[in-house]
Amino acid sequence: xxxxxxxxxxxxxxxxSQPQTLEVDFSWKKFKLFVTSKNSxxxxxxxxxxxxxxxxxxxxLFKSAVDDSILGTGTLHPISIDAECLVRGxxxxxxxxxxFKIEYEYFSTLxxxxxxxxxxxxxxxxxxxxxxxxxxxLDRNRMPVARFQVNLWAAKNVGVIELLGxxxxxxxxxxxxxxxxxxxFYFTVLRSSSIFSxxxxxxxxxxxxKAGKESKERVE
Length: 220
Description:
Elements: E1 20-27, E2 32-37, E3 47-54, E4 59-64, E5 70-75, E6 83-87, E7 90-96, E8 103-108, E9 120-128, E10 132-138, E11 144-151, E12 157-163, H1 166-169, H2 171-192, H3 195-202
Antiparallel strand pairs: 1-2, 1-12, 2-3, 3-4, 4-5, 5-6, 6-7, 7-8, 8-9, 9-10, 10-11, 11-12
């Protein structure tokens, strides 16, 4: 049964012009990820997102912790070095720009600054160290809109996401950053541990794609 999405529902504006920080924690008992806001006034902080692992489908399922509604999915491929996301009914393709370097591009209408709202290219890049892994989401002007610092050796505290500008102000933009960022992180883990992904990279055709293919509305 396909998950249902509530399209056309009013989007919320987060009452903050300051960067927003999200904590990403993994529960071994529930085998789920929980994303909470460090800016929250409540103690303990209540989760914003719950991410379930659908191992048989190689898929991440993103849910709102408020009402348990499905916000999106992230699909990981064992061979292809491209990944797909679905955020509030909108298809997004994470297209690899390099064979053996983590640099992915996708097209977004939410970050669009054009008069007619045409999709604009967004880029996730990654810098890996011995203990941490830093993902940065850049807009089409190569300015950061989000950062995701991952603790590579942590068993529970996966990392911290910092949202900047419009990503910290609009809930639907935050959803897009969380879904694409976490999908890319776990896809990176899969790629680094799979011989199939290695050969997939060898025979892949990374690079630019035209806007519009990745940002189509799903018609049920």
